[in-house]
Amino acid sequence: MPTRIDELLHEPIVVINLGLEKFAESLEEQQVEVVQVDWVPPAGGDKAMVELLDHLL
Amino acid sequence: MASGFVIRENQYYDSLFLMGINKRLSEVKGVQQTAVLMGSDNNKRLLFDIGVQDAQINAAQPDDLIVAVIAESPRIVDQVLGRLDEWLQSGLESASISSLHTLEDGLAHKPKANLVVISVPGEYAAREARRALAAGLNVFLFSDHVPVEEELELKQLAIQQKLLVMGPDCGTSLINGVGLGFANVVRTGPIGAIGAAGTGLQEFTSQVHNAGAGISHAIGTGSHDLSDTIGGTTTFTALEALEADPQTKVIAVISKPPGARTLARLIERLKICKKPAIGCFLGTRVELDGASTIFQCARTIDEAVYLAIERAGGKPTSLPNLLTPEELAWVSREKAAWSPNQQYLRGLFAGGTFCYQSQQILQDANIAVYSNAPLDQKTRLANPDRSLEHTVVDMGADTYTVGKPHPMIDGTSRKQRILVESRDPQVAVLLLDFILGYNASMDPVGELLDAILEARQVARQRRGSLTVVASICGTEDDPQDLSKQAKMLEEAGVVVFRTNARAAYFCCELLKHR
C-alpha cells in the first residue's frame, strides 16, 4: 500500500503555504495548486495560553 | 545621535515584508541603524543589543510590530517614524490578503493537500509542523532556529506516520519537477538527489540540467539532519523513498560536513543501496575500501554530477578540475597586472555550500584559508568582519542575517563587504557566487555590479588590478535570465564560471607560487 510519501512523489502536489507569501507565488508560477495562509502567532503569541489550548483541543 | 521607536499592537507581518520596510527606512539620509521586528523575546534582545530599550518594548507581544530608528538627529528619527504608516500601507497594497490564518483554515480550503510549506518564525515552527504531521501531511520546513529536541521529536513523529519532514532549515527541494523554496527550473529525469545543503542541492540539480540530464526528485533534509544529534533521520527516509521510486535510477547525497558517526552509518547504508549511489560530503575525505560497486564518493559537486550522469547512462561533460588552455592563459594575464604586494583572495558567498567547497578546493591545493564557517576550527576568523590573509566568508551566516535579508535575496551586505575588501592593498582576487532560481533576487549581479566596478577602480588607482572571479548557479530556464546575468559580469571584466568548483580551481591557479 502506497504511503503518503509515495503519493507526494508520484501524484500532483497540493500545498498549504504557511508563512512567506513569496513561496506560494513561486508555486503558482509553476501551476501548482496552493493555498496561502496568512499565519499569525496563535493566542497573540502568549505561549502559556497556546500550550493550554493545545492541551485542551 | 538620536533614537526612537514606535509599537503597533496586534499588527503581525512576515519577515520578508518587515525586511522590505526596514530597507526603505534604512535608505533615508542620516539614518544610522533601523530595526523593524515583531515583539518576540529574541527580537527584544536584538533591540537591547543595539541600545534600544524601554518598558513598553519589554511589554510588547510577539504579534506587536516594533520599529526602532537610530539617526543623526531627533528630526530625522521623527521624520522616519512619521512616514511609517505610509510605507506599511504601500507594502500591503502590493500583497494579496488571505482570509485564512491557521493550518486548519488551509486544510478546510484544500482537503486534498499532501504537503505543508512552513516558513513561520522558528519558535512556532515545530508546533505547526507537528499539527501538519498529525493531520497526515508531509512537511517542507523552511524555518530555522527550531530547538534540536523539537527537531528530533518531529522526525520521530514523521517516521511513525510514514511521512516526510524536509527540514527544519530546509532551503530547497524539487519534487517531481516542482521547486520548493529556493529552487531552479530543472527538467525531470533519472537522477535523484538528497541534500543536507540547500545551495549544494541547487548547484547539483542545475548542473545536471545544464549537462542535458534531469532530476526525478531532489529531497532537502535540512542543514542539521546529518549531525550526530539528529542522526540523518530524513536522509534515510528519503533514501528509502528514492530506492522505491521507479523514475529514479541513480541517487546522489550532497551535504556539508556531516557528523562522524552519522556519516559512517550512512556510508554503510549507501554501500547496500538498491540503486547506484554517489556521496559528496564536502569537507570530509571518505576512503572507500573498493568492496562496493554500488557506492562511489565524489570530492566536489561537479564530480558528483559527472558520476551521476555516467551511472544513469548519460554522457557527462569533461571532468571539472581541469582548466582549459584559454583559462590558463587568462590566469597569466590577470597575474601580470597585479602590483607586487597583491597576493590574497577574499571569497564572499551567498551560498554556505560554496563557502565550504571553495575552502576544500583551496586547502587541497595547499592554500590555507580563514573563514567564519571554517572546515578546520584552527582557521576560524576571530572577527567575521575582519578578513585575514586568504579568507572566505559565508555571508548567509546568522551574524549577517538576523533581522536582515539573506544575501540570496538582497545584495546589500555583500556589496558593503566588497568595498571594505577593496580597501586592502594586499587583496588580489575577489571570489563571488551568484544564485538564481525561484525566490532568489531577480537581479543578483545588478545588485553587486557597482561595488565590483568600484573595487576594480580602487585597485587600478593603486596601480594594481583586482581579479574578480564568479560562479553562477542556475539554468537558462530560471526567471533571472542566466545569459544576461553572465554577460553583465563579463562586460565588467569578471572571469565567469558556471560552477563554483571551477571558479575555485581557477583561483588556485591564480594563487600558486605567490
- What is the mean predicted local confidence, pLDDT of chain B? 93
Share of helix among residues of chain B?
A: 40-55%
Biggest sheet architecture of chain A = 2 strands, parallel
Strand order of the largest sheet of chain A: 1-2
Shape of chain B: globular
The portion of residues assigned to helices of chain A is 40-55%
| SSE sequence of chain A, one letter per element | HEHEH
The total domain count of chain B is 3
Report the CATH C-level class of the largest domain in chain B.
Alpha Beta
Name the chain pair with the biggest interface and residue counts per chain: A-B, 40 and 61 residues
**Helix count from the secondary structure assignment of chain A:** 3
Strand count, sense and closure of the main sheet of chain B?
Answer: 7 strands, mixed
Oligomer: heterodimer
CATH architectural type of the largest domain in chain B: 3-Layer(aba) Sandwich
| Extended strand count of chain B | 19
Point out poorly predicted stretches of chain B: none
**What's the domain count of chain A?**
1
